[in-house]
Amino acid sequence: MATTQRPASEEESTAPEPEYVEHIRKKSEDFAGWYNDVVRKAELADYTPVRGCMVIRPYGYALWEHIRDALDAMIKATGHANMYFPLLIPESLFMKEAEHVEGFAPEVAWVTRGGRSELEEPLAIRPTSETIIGTLYKNWIHSHRDLPVLINQWANVMRWEMRTRLFLRTAEFLWQEGHTFHATHQEAAEEVERMLDCYRVLAEDWMAMPVLTGRKTDEEKFAGAEYTTSIEALMSDGRALQAGTSHHLGENFTRTYEITFTDRENTRRHPHGTSWGLSTRVIGGVIMCHGDESGLIMPPRVAPIQVVVVPIYRGDEGRATVMAAVDSIVADLKRATPPGAPPVRVHVDDRDEKPGYKYNDWELRGVPLRLELGPRDIEGGVATVVERIGRAKTQVPLDELPTRLPAMLEDFHTRLFQRAVDIRDSYTVQVGDRIALAAAFDGRQALAIGPWCGRTECEREVKDTLGGVTIRNIAPDAPPAGAACAACGEPATHIARWARAY
RNA sequence: CGGGGCGUAGCGCAGCUCGGUAGCGCGCGUCGUUCGGGACGACGAGGUCCCGGGUUCAAAUCCCGGCGCCCCGACCA
Question: How many angstroms separate the CA of A18 from the C1' of B24?
Answer without folding.
Answer: 11
